[in-house]
Amino acid sequence: MTELNFKGKEFVYNHHLAVPVRPLEVDPDKGIGEPRLDGNLIIQGDNLHALKALLPYYAGKVDCIFIDPPYNTGNEGWAYNDNVRAPMIQEWLNSNPIGIEDGLRHDKWCAMMWPRLRLLHELLAETGSLWVTIDDNEVQRARALLDEVFGPDNFIASCIWQKRFSPSNDEKYISTTHDYLLVYAKDPDQWERGLIPRTDEQLALYSNPDEDPRGRWASDNYVSNKSRTERPNSWFPIYRPSDGKEIWPSPTAVWRYSQTQHQKNVDDDRVWWGEAGTNDVPRFKRFLTEVQEGVVPQTLWWHHEVGHNQGAKQFLKKIFSDRDDIFQTPKPIELLMRVLQIASGPNGLILDSFAGSGTTAHAVLEANKRDGGNRRFILVEMEDYADRLTAERVRRVMTGYDFTGTQSTELLREKITWTKFKKAEKLTERVEKIENLHGHEYDSVKKSVKDGELIVTGEKKVKDRAEGLGGEFTYCTLGPAIELDKILTGETLPAWTALGGVLFHMATNRVFDPGLANPDRGYLGRAEAPDGPVHVWLIYRPDLDWLKTPEAALTLSGARTMAGTAPGERHVVFAPARHVSRKMLDEQALKVDFAPLPFALYRVERD
Q: 76 pLDDT exceeds 60?
Protein backbone atom coordinates (compact mmCIF):
# COMPACT_ATOMS: atom_id res chain seq x y z
CA MET A 1 0.00 0.00 0.00
CA THR A 2 1.29 3.45 -0.92
CA GLU A 3 1.87 5.49 2.22
CA LEU A 4 0.90 9.15 2.50
CA ASN A 5 3.75 11.30 3.79
CA PHE A 6 3.16 14.79 5.09
CA LYS A 7 5.28 17.17 7.09
CA GLY A 8 4.81 16.54 10.81
CA LYS A 9 3.46 12.99 10.46
CA GLU A 10 6.09 11.57 12.81
CA PHE A 11 4.95 14.00 15.51
CA VAL A 12 1.22 13.34 15.23
CA TYR A 13 1.36 9.61 14.44
CA ASN A 14 0.53 8.62 18.04
CA HIS A 15 -0.57 12.02 19.30
CA HIS A 16 -4.06 10.68 20.07
CA LEU A 17 -2.48 8.54 22.80
CA ALA A 18 -0.89 11.57 24.46
CA VAL A 19 -4.09 13.64 24.49
CA PRO A 20 -5.26 13.76 28.12
CA VAL A 21 -8.80 12.75 28.97
CA ARG A 22 -11.03 15.67 29.84
CA PRO A 23 -14.26 14.59 31.54
CA LEU A 24 -17.64 15.53 30.15
CA GLU A 25 -19.25 18.18 32.34
CA VAL A 26 -23.02 18.47 32.06
CA ASP A 27 -24.69 21.87 31.73
CA PRO A 28 -28.29 21.00 32.73
CA ASP A 29 -29.66 24.41 31.75
CA LYS A 30 -28.71 24.06 28.10
CA GLY A 31 -30.19 20.65 27.38
CA ILE A 32 -33.71 19.28 27.25
CA GLY A 33 -34.88 16.60 29.68
CA GLU A 34 -33.02 14.78 32.43
CA PRO A 35 -29.23 15.00 31.90
CA ARG A 36 -27.70 11.64 30.98
CA LEU A 37 -24.52 10.56 29.23
CA ASP A 38 -26.10 7.54 27.55
CA GLY A 39 -28.65 9.55 25.56
CA ASN A 40 -28.39 12.26 22.92
CA LEU A 41 -25.34 14.47 23.50
CA ILE A 42 -24.11 17.82 22.24
CA ILE A 43 -20.53 18.55 23.33
CA GLN A 44 -18.89 21.94 23.04
CA GLY A 45 -15.14 21.74 22.86
CA ASP A 46 -12.18 20.72 20.73
CA ASN A 47 -13.25 17.58 18.93
CA LEU A 48 -9.90 15.87 19.54
CA HIS A 49 -10.40 16.18 23.30
CA ALA A 50 -14.11 15.42 23.02
CA LEU A 51 -13.44 12.18 21.15
CA LYS A 52 -10.92 11.16 23.81
CA ALA A 53 -13.52 11.98 26.50
CA LEU A 54 -16.05 9.71 24.75
CA LEU A 55 -13.74 6.68 24.61
CA PRO A 56 -14.45 5.32 28.12
CA TYR A 57 -18.17 5.33 27.38
CA TYR A 58 -18.48 4.63 23.65
CA ALA A 59 -15.35 2.85 22.37
CA GLY A 60 -16.50 0.33 19.77
CA LYS A 61 -20.16 1.34 20.19
CA VAL A 62 -20.84 3.90 17.44
CA ASP A 63 -22.81 2.55 14.47
CA CYS A 64 -22.40 5.44 12.05
CA ILE A 65 -19.92 8.32 11.99
CA PHE A 66 -20.62 11.25 9.69
CA ILE A 67 -18.11 14.09 9.52
CA ASP A 68 -17.96 17.24 7.44
CA PRO A 69 -14.40 18.47 8.16
CA PRO A 70 -12.87 21.67 6.77
CA TYR A 71 -12.47 21.28 3.02
CA ASN A 72 -9.23 23.30 3.27
CA THR A 73 -10.09 25.65 0.43
CA GLY A 74 -7.77 28.30 1.81
CA ASN A 75 -10.69 30.61 2.54
CA GLU A 76 -12.19 28.93 5.59
CA GLY A 77 -9.99 30.42 8.29
CA TRP A 78 -9.64 27.19 10.30
CA ALA A 79 -6.74 26.98 12.75
CA TYR A 80 -4.36 24.16 13.55
CA ASN A 81 -4.04 24.23 17.34
CA ASP A 82 -3.38 20.68 18.56
CA ASN A 83 -0.98 20.79 21.48
CA VAL A 84 1.77 18.73 19.87
CA ARG A 85 5.00 19.48 21.71
CA ALA A 86 7.36 19.57 18.76
CA PRO A 87 9.25 22.68 17.59
CA MET A 88 8.06 22.33 14.00
CA ILE A 89 4.41 22.08 15.05
CA GLN A 90 4.83 25.02 17.39
CA GLU A 91 6.10 27.11 14.49
CA TRP A 92 2.94 26.30 12.57
CA LEU A 93 0.80 27.78 15.30
CA ASN A 94 2.31 31.19 14.63
CA SER A 95 0.85 31.20 11.10
CA ASN A 96 -2.78 30.45 12.03
CA PRO A 97 -5.39 30.66 10.70
CA ILE A 98 -4.55 28.61 7.62
CA GLY A 99 -4.90 30.69 4.46
CA ILE A 100 -4.56 30.07 0.75
CA GLU A 101 -1.01 31.47 0.77
CA ASP A 102 0.10 28.93 3.38
CA GLY A 103 2.37 26.54 1.51
CA LEU A 104 1.95 23.90 4.22
CA ARG A 105 -1.84 24.06 4.51
CA HIS A 106 -2.27 20.55 3.08
CA ASP A 107 0.28 19.15 5.55
CA LYS A 108 -1.48 20.93 8.40
CA TRP A 109 -4.82 19.55 7.30
CA CYS A 110 -3.42 16.02 7.33
CA ALA A 111 -1.79 16.62 10.72
CA MET A 112 -5.13 17.86 12.08
CA MET A 113 -7.14 14.96 10.65
CA TRP A 114 -4.77 12.09 11.54
CA PRO A 115 -5.28 11.84 15.35
CA ARG A 116 -9.02 12.51 14.99
CA LEU A 117 -9.41 9.66 12.52
CA ARG A 118 -7.45 7.37 14.86
CA LEU A 119 -9.90 8.12 17.69
CA LEU A 120 -12.93 7.82 15.40
CA HIS A 121 -11.67 4.38 14.39
CA GLU A 122 -11.59 3.36 18.07
CA LEU A 123 -15.12 4.64 18.66
CA LEU A 124 -16.61 2.89 15.63
CA ALA A 125 -18.31 -0.46 16.16
CA GLU A 126 -17.08 -3.50 14.25
CA THR A 127 -20.38 -3.37 12.36
CA GLY A 128 -20.17 0.40 11.79
CA SER A 129 -19.24 2.72 8.94
CA LEU A 130 -17.61 6.14 8.50
CA TRP A 131 -18.89 8.79 6.05
CA VAL A 132 -16.71 11.80 5.17
CA THR A 133 -17.82 14.70 2.97
CA ILE A 134 -14.99 16.43 1.11
CA ASP A 135 -14.24 18.21 -2.15
CA ASP A 136 -11.38 18.20 -4.64
CA ASN A 137 -9.07 20.25 -2.40
CA GLU A 138 -8.32 17.25 -0.15
CA VAL A 139 -10.16 14.21 -1.52
CA GLN A 140 -6.98 12.43 -2.65
CA ARG A 141 -5.26 13.01 0.69
CA ALA A 142 -8.43 12.06 2.57
CA ARG A 143 -8.50 8.75 0.70
CA ALA A 144 -4.86 8.10 1.54
CA LEU A 145 -5.36 8.98 5.23
CA LEU A 146 -8.42 6.76 5.51
CA ASP A 147 -6.66 3.90 3.74
CA GLU A 148 -3.92 4.02 6.37
CA VAL A 149 -6.20 4.35 9.40
CA PHE A 150 -9.06 2.08 8.32
CA GLY A 151 -7.25 -0.11 5.80
CA PRO A 152 -7.64 0.00 2.00
CA ASP A 153 -9.71 -3.20 2.03
CA ASN A 154 -12.31 -1.45 4.17
CA PHE A 155 -13.05 1.19 1.54
CA ILE A 156 -16.68 0.89 0.44
CA ALA A 157 -17.38 3.68 -2.06
CA SER A 158 -16.76 7.24 -3.15
CA CYS A 159 -20.20 8.74 -3.66
CA ILE A 160 -20.77 11.92 -5.64
CA TRP A 161 -23.35 14.31 -4.24
CA GLN A 162 -24.78 17.02 -6.49
CA LYS A 163 -24.63 19.96 -4.09
CA ARG A 164 -25.71 22.56 -6.65
CA PHE A 165 -28.49 22.38 -9.22
CA SER A 166 -27.26 25.21 -11.46
CA PRO A 167 -23.80 26.38 -12.61
CA SER A 168 -21.95 29.33 -11.12
CA ASN A 169 -21.46 31.72 -14.02
CA ASP A 170 -18.64 33.57 -12.28
CA GLU A 171 -16.37 30.50 -12.17
CA LYS A 172 -13.08 31.12 -13.97
CA TYR A 173 -12.84 27.65 -15.49
CA ILE A 174 -15.43 24.95 -14.76
CA SER A 175 -18.30 25.27 -12.30
CA THR A 176 -18.14 22.67 -9.54
CA THR A 177 -21.51 21.16 -8.74
CA HIS A 178 -20.57 18.16 -6.59
CA ASP A 179 -18.85 17.04 -3.43
CA TYR A 180 -17.60 13.58 -2.48
CA LEU A 181 -18.82 11.31 0.26
CA LEU A 182 -16.14 8.76 1.19
CA VAL A 183 -17.44 5.60 2.84
CA TYR A 184 -15.38 3.14 4.91
CA ALA A 185 -16.50 0.22 7.06
CA LYS A 186 -14.74 -0.96 10.21
CA ASP A 187 -15.20 -4.50 8.90
CA PRO A 188 -17.05 -4.87 5.57
CA ASP A 189 -17.87 -8.50 6.35
CA GLN A 190 -19.82 -7.41 9.43
CA TRP A 191 -21.33 -4.20 8.07
CA GLU A 192 -25.01 -4.50 7.16
CA ARG A 193 -25.81 -2.07 4.40
CA GLY A 194 -29.33 -0.70 4.31
CA LEU A 195 -31.44 -0.26 1.18
CA ILE A 196 -33.01 2.88 -0.26
CA PRO A 197 -36.83 2.89 -0.19
CA ARG A 198 -38.35 2.63 -3.65
CA THR A 199 -39.56 5.89 -5.12
CA ASP A 200 -43.01 6.37 -6.62
CA GLU A 201 -41.33 6.27 -10.03
CA GLN A 202 -39.75 2.89 -9.28
CA LEU A 203 -43.01 1.51 -7.88
CA ALA A 204 -44.82 2.70 -11.01
CA LEU A 205 -42.77 0.17 -13.02
CA TYR A 206 -44.86 -2.56 -11.41
CA SER A 207 -48.36 -3.06 -12.77
CA ASN A 208 -50.79 -5.90 -13.39
CA PRO A 209 -52.07 -5.73 -16.98
CA ASP A 210 -53.12 -9.41 -17.00
CA GLU A 211 -54.81 -9.18 -13.58
CA ASP A 212 -52.55 -11.85 -12.12
CA PRO A 213 -53.86 -12.81 -8.64
CA ARG A 214 -50.31 -12.60 -7.32
CA GLY A 215 -50.40 -8.82 -7.72
CA ARG A 216 -48.24 -6.20 -9.42
CA TRP A 217 -45.21 -7.25 -11.44
CA ALA A 218 -42.53 -5.87 -13.74
CA SER A 219 -41.13 -7.60 -16.81
CA ASP A 220 -37.47 -8.61 -16.94
CA ASN A 221 -35.17 -9.74 -19.75
CA TYR A 222 -35.62 -13.29 -20.97
CA VAL A 223 -32.31 -13.25 -22.84
CA SER A 224 -28.81 -13.03 -21.43
CA ASN A 225 -25.62 -11.32 -22.63
CA LYS A 226 -24.00 -14.69 -23.39
CA SER A 227 -23.49 -16.08 -26.88
CA ARG A 228 -24.43 -19.47 -28.32
CA THR A 229 -20.76 -20.49 -28.08
CA GLU A 230 -20.56 -19.54 -24.39
CA ARG A 231 -23.85 -21.18 -23.43
CA PRO A 232 -24.74 -23.87 -25.97
CA ASN A 233 -27.36 -25.36 -23.61
CA SER A 234 -29.30 -22.09 -23.68
CA TRP A 235 -29.64 -22.17 -27.47
CA PHE A 236 -33.02 -23.81 -28.14
CA PRO A 237 -36.44 -22.85 -29.57
CA ILE A 238 -39.49 -21.92 -27.54
CA TYR A 239 -43.04 -21.62 -28.79
CA ARG A 240 -45.36 -18.63 -28.67
CA PRO A 241 -48.74 -19.72 -27.24
CA SER A 242 -50.87 -17.36 -29.36
CA ASP A 243 -49.95 -19.00 -32.68
CA GLY A 244 -47.45 -21.77 -31.86
CA LYS A 245 -44.63 -19.97 -33.69
CA GLU A 246 -41.13 -21.30 -33.05
CA ILE A 247 -38.94 -18.57 -31.48
CA TRP A 248 -35.14 -18.78 -31.40
CA PRO A 249 -32.87 -16.44 -29.44
CA SER A 250 -30.13 -14.43 -31.11
CA PRO A 251 -26.81 -16.29 -31.48
CA THR A 252 -25.18 -13.50 -29.49
CA ALA A 253 -27.85 -13.32 -26.76
CA VAL A 254 -29.21 -16.74 -25.82
CA TRP A 255 -32.00 -17.48 -23.34
CA ARG A 256 -31.34 -16.65 -19.71
CA TYR A 257 -32.99 -19.90 -18.58
CA SER A 258 -32.39 -23.58 -19.30
CA GLN A 259 -35.06 -25.67 -21.07
CA THR A 260 -36.10 -27.18 -17.74
CA GLN A 261 -36.41 -23.79 -16.05
CA HIS A 262 -38.21 -22.34 -19.06
CA GLN A 263 -40.87 -25.01 -18.79
CA LYS A 264 -41.26 -24.22 -15.08
CA ASN A 265 -41.69 -20.55 -16.00
CA VAL A 266 -44.39 -21.48 -18.50
CA ASP A 267 -46.21 -23.68 -15.99
CA ASP A 268 -46.05 -20.87 -13.40
CA ASP A 269 -47.37 -18.25 -15.86
CA ARG A 270 -44.12 -16.29 -15.73
CA VAL A 271 -43.58 -15.84 -19.50
CA TRP A 272 -45.06 -12.61 -20.85
CA TRP A 273 -45.56 -12.16 -24.62
CA GLY A 274 -47.09 -8.69 -24.39
CA GLU A 275 -50.72 -7.64 -23.97
CA ALA A 276 -51.58 -8.93 -27.45
CA GLY A 277 -49.47 -12.07 -26.95
CA THR A 278 -47.56 -11.48 -30.19
CA ASN A 279 -44.15 -10.16 -29.10
CA ASP A 280 -41.18 -11.75 -30.88
CA VAL A 281 -39.21 -12.11 -27.63
CA PRO A 282 -40.89 -12.88 -24.29
CA ARG A 283 -40.28 -11.20 -20.93
CA PHE A 284 -40.10 -12.69 -17.43
CA LYS A 285 -42.72 -11.66 -14.85
CA ARG A 286 -41.12 -10.61 -11.55
CA PHE A 287 -43.60 -9.78 -8.80
CA LEU A 288 -43.24 -6.83 -6.45
CA THR A 289 -43.75 -9.15 -3.46
CA GLU A 290 -40.65 -11.12 -4.50
CA VAL A 291 -38.13 -8.31 -4.70
CA GLN A 292 -36.35 -6.78 -1.73
CA GLU A 293 -38.13 -3.90 -0.03
CA GLY A 294 -35.66 -1.28 -1.22
CA VAL A 295 -33.06 -0.72 -3.91
CA VAL A 296 -29.28 -0.99 -3.66
CA PRO A 297 -27.64 2.44 -3.12
CA GLN A 298 -25.65 3.90 -5.97
CA THR A 299 -22.67 6.24 -5.99
CA LEU A 300 -24.47 9.09 -7.80
CA TRP A 301 -26.64 11.14 -5.43
CA TRP A 302 -28.72 13.70 -7.30
CA HIS A 303 -29.87 16.93 -5.67
CA HIS A 304 -33.54 16.13 -6.26
CA GLU A 305 -33.05 12.99 -4.15
CA VAL A 306 -30.86 14.24 -1.28
CA GLY A 307 -31.12 18.03 -1.37
CA HIS A 308 -28.62 20.77 -2.18
CA ASN A 309 -26.78 23.56 -0.36
CA GLN A 310 -29.12 26.36 -1.35
CA GLY A 311 -32.18 24.45 -0.16
CA ALA A 312 -30.43 23.58 3.10
CA LYS A 313 -29.63 27.22 3.76
CA GLN A 314 -33.20 28.31 3.04
CA PHE A 315 -34.49 25.61 5.39
CA LEU A 316 -32.15 26.80 8.15
CA LYS A 317 -33.39 30.35 7.65
CA LYS A 318 -36.93 29.16 8.35
CA ILE A 319 -35.83 27.62 11.64
CA PHE A 320 -33.96 30.82 12.55
CA SER A 321 -36.36 33.33 11.05
CA ASP A 322 -35.59 35.69 13.94
CA ARG A 323 -31.83 35.78 13.27
CA ASP A 324 -29.37 36.60 10.51
CA ASP A 325 -26.19 35.02 11.92
CA ILE A 326 -26.80 31.49 10.68
CA PHE A 327 -24.42 28.88 9.31
CA GLN A 328 -23.58 29.66 5.68
CA THR A 329 -22.94 26.15 4.31
CA PRO A 330 -25.29 23.70 6.08
CA LYS A 331 -25.78 20.21 4.75
CA PRO A 332 -29.35 19.32 3.69
CA ILE A 333 -31.30 17.08 6.02
CA GLU A 334 -32.17 14.83 3.05
CA LEU A 335 -28.46 14.04 2.57
CA LEU A 336 -28.13 12.86 6.17
CA MET A 337 -31.41 10.94 5.91
CA ARG A 338 -29.94 9.01 2.98
CA VAL A 339 -26.80 8.21 4.99
CA LEU A 340 -28.94 6.96 7.89
CA GLN A 341 -31.01 4.78 5.55
CA ILE A 342 -27.86 3.02 4.39
CA ALA A 343 -25.69 3.08 7.50
CA SER A 344 -27.91 2.81 10.57
CA GLY A 345 -30.78 0.74 11.84
CA PRO A 346 -33.65 2.11 13.96
CA ASN A 347 -31.58 1.82 17.17
CA GLY A 348 -28.28 3.11 15.84
CA LEU A 349 -25.85 5.50 17.52
CA ILE A 350 -24.68 8.29 15.18
CA LEU A 351 -21.65 10.50 15.85
CA ASP A 352 -20.79 13.79 14.13
CA SER A 353 -17.59 15.41 15.44
CA PHE A 354 -17.72 18.40 13.05
CA ALA A 355 -21.35 19.20 13.85
CA GLY A 356 -21.70 22.67 12.30
CA SER A 357 -25.38 23.62 12.10
CA GLY A 358 -26.58 20.35 13.67
CA THR A 359 -28.11 18.76 10.55
CA THR A 360 -27.08 15.29 11.74
CA ALA A 361 -29.15 15.57 14.93
CA HIS A 362 -32.10 16.95 12.95
CA ALA A 363 -31.94 13.98 10.57
CA VAL A 364 -31.82 11.51 13.47
CA LEU A 365 -34.92 13.07 15.04
CA GLU A 366 -36.75 13.11 11.71
CA ALA A 367 -35.83 9.47 11.02
CA ASN A 368 -37.12 8.44 14.46
CA LYS A 369 -40.39 10.24 13.84
CA ARG A 370 -40.90 8.56 10.47
CA ASP A 371 -40.29 4.96 11.53
CA GLY A 372 -40.66 5.04 15.32
CA GLY A 373 -36.96 4.30 15.80
CA ASN A 374 -34.78 5.03 18.80
CA ARG A 375 -31.63 6.34 17.14
CA ARG A 376 -29.30 8.48 19.26
CA PHE A 377 -26.87 11.21 18.24
CA ILE A 378 -23.63 12.63 19.59
CA LEU A 379 -22.57 16.01 18.20
CA VAL A 380 -19.26 17.75 18.82
CA GLU A 381 -18.70 21.39 17.89
CA MET A 382 -15.74 23.48 19.02
CA GLU A 383 -16.74 26.88 17.65
CA ASP A 384 -18.49 29.50 19.78
CA TYR A 385 -21.77 28.90 17.96
CA ALA A 386 -22.10 25.42 19.49
CA ASP A 387 -24.72 26.71 21.93
CA ARG A 388 -26.39 29.53 20.04
CA LEU A 389 -26.66 27.69 16.70
CA THR A 390 -25.90 23.96 16.85
CA ALA A 391 -27.71 23.22 20.11
CA GLU A 392 -30.33 25.93 19.53
CA ARG A 393 -31.36 24.30 16.26
CA VAL A 394 -31.85 21.01 18.09
CA ARG A 395 -33.88 22.74 20.82
CA ARG A 396 -36.15 24.35 18.25
CA VAL A 397 -36.53 21.19 16.19
CA MET A 398 -37.43 19.20 19.32
CA THR A 399 -39.87 21.67 20.85
CA GLY A 400 -41.09 23.58 17.79
CA TYR A 401 -40.24 27.07 16.66
CA ASP A 402 -41.90 30.32 15.70
CA PHE A 403 -42.62 30.42 12.01
CA THR A 404 -45.14 32.09 9.76
CA GLY A 405 -45.21 31.11 6.13
CA THR A 406 -45.41 28.03 3.94
CA GLN A 407 -43.59 24.79 4.62
CA SER A 408 -42.89 22.86 1.42
CA THR A 409 -42.19 19.16 1.02
CA GLU A 410 -41.08 17.83 -2.35
CA LEU A 411 -43.23 14.83 -3.34
CA LEU A 412 -42.02 14.23 -6.89
CA ARG A 413 -39.28 15.49 -9.20
CA GLU A 414 -39.19 13.99 -12.67
CA LYS A 415 -37.10 14.89 -15.73
CA ILE A 416 -39.33 15.44 -18.75
CA THR A 417 -37.89 13.40 -21.62
CA TRP A 418 -39.42 13.01 -25.08
CA THR A 419 -40.51 9.47 -24.23
CA LYS A 420 -42.28 10.64 -21.09
CA PHE A 421 -43.77 13.58 -22.95
CA LYS A 422 -45.35 11.17 -25.43
CA LYS A 423 -46.84 9.22 -22.51
CA ALA A 424 -48.05 12.27 -20.66
CA GLU A 425 -51.18 10.48 -19.45
CA LYS A 426 -49.06 8.12 -17.33
CA LEU A 427 -47.26 11.05 -15.76
CA THR A 428 -50.61 12.70 -15.07
CA GLU A 429 -51.85 9.50 -13.42
CA ARG A 430 -48.81 9.47 -11.13
CA VAL A 431 -49.45 13.05 -10.05
CA GLU A 432 -53.09 12.21 -9.37
CA LYS A 433 -52.05 9.23 -7.25
CA ILE A 434 -49.71 11.46 -5.24
CA GLU A 435 -52.51 13.96 -4.70
CA ASN A 436 -54.90 11.20 -3.58
CA LEU A 437 -52.30 9.66 -1.28
CA HIS A 438 -50.82 12.81 0.30
CA GLY A 439 -53.37 15.53 -0.38
CA HIS A 440 -54.88 15.32 3.10
CA GLU A 441 -51.46 16.03 4.65
CA TYR A 442 -51.11 19.47 3.04
CA ASP A 443 -53.14 22.56 2.37
CA SER A 444 -52.32 22.27 -1.32
CA VAL A 445 -50.29 20.21 -3.77
CA LYS A 446 -48.40 22.44 -6.20
CA LYS A 447 -47.33 21.30 -9.69
CA SER A 448 -44.74 23.13 -11.76
CA VAL A 449 -42.24 22.55 -14.58
CA LYS A 450 -38.82 24.17 -14.15
CA ASP A 451 -35.56 23.55 -16.01
CA GLY A 452 -37.04 20.54 -17.76
CA GLU A 453 -38.29 18.91 -14.56
CA LEU A 454 -41.79 18.28 -13.28
CA ILE A 455 -41.89 19.21 -9.59
CA VAL A 456 -44.77 18.28 -7.30
CA THR A 457 -44.69 19.92 -3.87
CA GLY A 458 -46.92 19.60 -0.84
CA GLU A 459 -47.45 22.96 0.85
CA LYS A 460 -48.67 23.61 4.36
CA LYS A 461 -49.39 27.07 5.72
CA VAL A 462 -48.02 27.72 9.19
CA LYS A 463 -49.45 30.74 11.01
CA ASP A 464 -47.61 30.84 14.30
CA ARG A 465 -45.45 27.85 15.14
CA ALA A 466 -43.88 24.83 13.46
CA GLU A 467 -44.52 21.57 15.27
CA GLY A 468 -41.60 20.01 17.14
CA LEU A 469 -40.27 16.48 16.63
CA GLY A 470 -39.86 15.76 20.36
CA GLY A 471 -36.84 14.26 22.06
CA GLU A 472 -34.23 15.11 24.67
CA PHE A 473 -30.51 15.85 24.75
CA THR A 474 -27.76 16.66 27.23
CA TYR A 475 -25.38 19.57 26.68
CA CYS A 476 -21.81 19.07 27.85
CA THR A 477 -18.54 20.93 27.96
CA LEU A 478 -15.08 19.53 28.66
CA GLY A 479 -13.68 19.71 32.17
CA PRO A 480 -10.04 20.04 33.23
CA ALA A 481 -7.77 17.33 31.91
CA ILE A 482 -7.29 14.22 34.02
CA GLU A 483 -3.50 14.18 34.06
CA LEU A 484 -2.03 11.57 36.36
CA ASP A 485 1.15 13.57 36.97
CA LYS A 486 -0.98 16.41 38.42
CA ILE A 487 -2.88 13.99 40.64
CA LEU A 488 0.50 13.27 42.22
CA THR A 489 0.51 16.69 43.83
CA GLY A 490 -3.24 16.97 44.32
CA GLU A 491 -3.27 19.85 41.83
CA THR A 492 -6.26 18.34 40.05
CA LEU A 493 -8.75 15.99 41.71
CA PRO A 494 -11.37 14.84 39.19
CA ALA A 495 -14.77 13.52 40.17
CA TRP A 496 -15.03 9.83 41.09
CA THR A 497 -17.04 8.95 37.96
CA ALA A 498 -14.73 10.90 35.64
CA LEU A 499 -11.57 9.26 36.98
CA GLY A 500 -13.30 5.90 37.28
CA GLY A 501 -14.37 5.91 33.64
CA VAL A 502 -10.80 6.51 32.49
CA LEU A 503 -9.31 3.86 34.79
CA PHE A 504 -11.94 1.26 33.89
CA HIS A 505 -11.27 1.76 30.19
CA MET A 506 -7.50 1.62 30.76
CA ALA A 507 -7.74 -1.57 32.80
CA THR A 508 -10.17 -3.49 30.61
CA ASN A 509 -10.22 -1.80 27.18
CA ARG A 510 -13.99 -1.95 27.57
CA VAL A 511 -16.68 0.71 27.71
CA PHE A 512 -17.50 2.16 31.12
CA ASP A 513 -21.18 2.19 32.07
CA PRO A 514 -21.86 4.73 34.85
CA GLY A 515 -25.27 3.18 35.40
CA LEU A 516 -23.67 -0.04 36.66
CA ALA A 517 -21.12 1.70 38.88
CA ASN A 518 -21.59 2.22 42.61
CA PRO A 519 -19.54 5.11 44.06
CA ASP A 520 -20.57 4.27 47.65
CA ARG A 521 -18.99 0.82 47.35
CA GLY A 522 -16.21 2.00 45.05
CA TYR A 523 -17.33 -0.44 42.35
CA LEU A 524 -16.70 0.54 38.71
CA GLY A 525 -17.97 -2.54 36.89
CA ARG A 526 -17.27 -5.94 35.37
CA ALA A 527 -15.67 -6.78 32.04
CA GLU A 528 -14.84 -9.94 30.14
CA ALA A 529 -11.12 -10.54 29.65
CA PRO A 530 -9.17 -13.29 27.82
CA ASP A 531 -8.39 -14.98 31.16
CA GLY A 532 -11.91 -14.59 32.54
CA PRO A 533 -14.12 -11.90 34.08
CA VAL A 534 -12.50 -8.97 35.88
CA HIS A 535 -14.11 -6.58 38.36
CA VAL A 536 -12.70 -3.07 38.74
CA TRP A 537 -12.83 -1.00 41.94
CA LEU A 538 -11.77 2.54 42.80
CA ILE A 539 -11.08 3.73 46.35
CA TYR A 540 -11.07 7.46 45.87
CA ARG A 541 -12.70 10.77 46.72
CA PRO A 542 -11.83 14.16 45.20
CA ASP A 543 -10.79 15.31 48.68
CA LEU A 544 -7.10 15.63 49.46
CA ASP A 545 -7.60 15.46 53.23
CA TRP A 546 -9.61 12.21 52.93
CA LEU A 547 -7.02 10.75 50.60
CA LYS A 548 -4.46 11.10 53.41
CA THR A 549 -6.52 8.92 55.78
CA PRO A 550 -6.39 5.11 56.18
CA GLU A 551 -9.84 4.90 54.61
CA ALA A 552 -8.24 5.57 51.23
CA ALA A 553 -6.09 2.44 51.36
CA LEU A 554 -6.81 -1.15 50.32
CA THR A 555 -7.02 -3.28 53.46
CA LEU A 556 -7.37 -7.00 54.04
CA SER A 557 -10.99 -6.63 55.19
CA GLY A 558 -11.74 -4.47 52.15
CA ALA A 559 -10.13 -7.02 49.82
CA ARG A 560 -12.23 -9.81 51.41
CA THR A 561 -15.43 -7.79 50.92
CA MET A 562 -14.61 -7.07 47.27
CA ALA A 563 -13.59 -10.64 46.48
CA GLY A 564 -16.73 -11.91 48.21
CA THR A 565 -18.97 -10.15 45.70
CA ALA A 566 -17.73 -12.55 42.99
CA PRO A 567 -15.70 -15.41 44.49
CA GLY A 568 -13.16 -16.98 42.20
CA GLU A 569 -13.14 -14.07 39.77
CA ARG A 570 -10.35 -11.51 39.42
CA HIS A 571 -10.59 -8.05 40.99
CA VAL A 572 -8.48 -4.99 40.19
CA VAL A 573 -8.49 -2.27 42.86
CA PHE A 574 -7.28 1.27 42.19
CA ALA A 575 -6.35 3.07 45.41
CA PRO A 576 -3.77 5.60 46.62
CA ALA A 577 -2.21 3.01 48.95
CA ARG A 578 -2.61 -0.46 50.42
CA HIS A 579 -2.27 -1.77 53.95
CA VAL A 580 -2.09 -5.42 52.97
CA SER A 581 0.77 -7.25 51.31
CA ARG A 582 0.60 -9.31 48.14
CA LYS A 583 1.73 -12.31 50.18
CA MET A 584 -1.20 -11.99 52.56
CA LEU A 585 -3.68 -11.68 49.69
CA ASP A 586 -2.25 -14.87 48.17
CA GLU A 587 -2.38 -16.72 51.51
CA GLN A 588 -6.05 -15.79 51.79
CA ALA A 589 -6.61 -17.00 48.19
CA LEU A 590 -8.00 -13.60 47.27
CA LYS A 591 -7.71 -12.86 43.56
CA VAL A 592 -7.26 -9.14 44.17
CA ASP A 593 -4.67 -7.05 42.31
CA PHE A 594 -3.66 -3.65 43.64
CA ALA A 595 -3.20 -0.80 41.13
CA PRO A 596 -1.65 2.24 42.86
CA LEU A 597 -3.01 5.67 42.13
CA PRO A 598 -0.13 8.09 41.55
CA PHE A 599 -0.06 10.11 44.77
CA ALA A 600 3.49 10.85 45.86
CA LEU A 601 2.51 11.27 49.51
CA TYR A 602 1.84 7.51 49.68
CA ARG A 603 5.21 5.93 49.17
CA VAL A 604 4.23 2.44 50.23
CA GLU A 605 6.67 -0.39 49.84
CA ARG A 606 5.34 -2.89 47.32
CA ASP A 607 6.49 -6.44 47.78
A: yes
